[in-house]
Amino acid sequence: QVQLAESGGGFVQPGGSLGLSCTSSGGIFSLYNVGWYRQTPGKEREFVATVSTADTPKYSDSVKGRFTVSRDNAKSTVHLQMNSLEPEDTAVYYCHANRKRGSARWDYWGQGTQVTVSS
User: Fold this and answer.
1) Is pLDDT above 90 for 50?
2) Among 8, 42, 71, 112, which residue is least crowded by beta carbons within 10 Å?
3) What is the rounded distance in angstroms from the CA atom of residue 28 to the CA atom of residue 38?
4) CA–CA separation, 49 vs 20, rounded Å?
């Protein structure tokens, strides 16, 4: 059973930067695609960024060019560096890990960390 723990959320002014980290335990981190989703009240959880087991990043259009996702397999950690933050980035950010093998699929979520962008 994989467990994910986020850290690094907080309050930042528009145009500022913030970094999130997510540490995994209980599984072989390198076997999982890992990344981030976010959710605001009344809306569905949306994809933000992911980095594959091959270390290939992928971003949503809304954060491309501003956010950077990276992984450190030795530390079982995935990071999200967020720059040029906008009020629209305010959300609870969730760490996500997934793995597929044949028809089987495993998905794990962290508990979330709040990011607030406001002046």
Assistant:
1) yes
2) 42
3) 24
4) 12
pLDDT digits (tens, 9 = 90+) for 58-101: 999 999 999 999 999 999 999 999 999 999 999 999 999 999 99
Q: Are strands 10-12 and 18-25 parallel, antiparallel or unpaired?
A: unpaired
- Which residue type, as a one-letter code, is found at position 89? D
Tokens found for residue 51:
């980095």
Residue-averaged pLDDT of the chain:
96
Edge-to-edge strand list for the sheet holding 3-7: 3-7, 18-25, 77-82, 67-72
CA distances from 26 to 13, 77, 79, 110 (A): 36, 13, 18, 13
CB-based burial label for 94 (10 Å; 0-12, 13-18, 19+)? buried
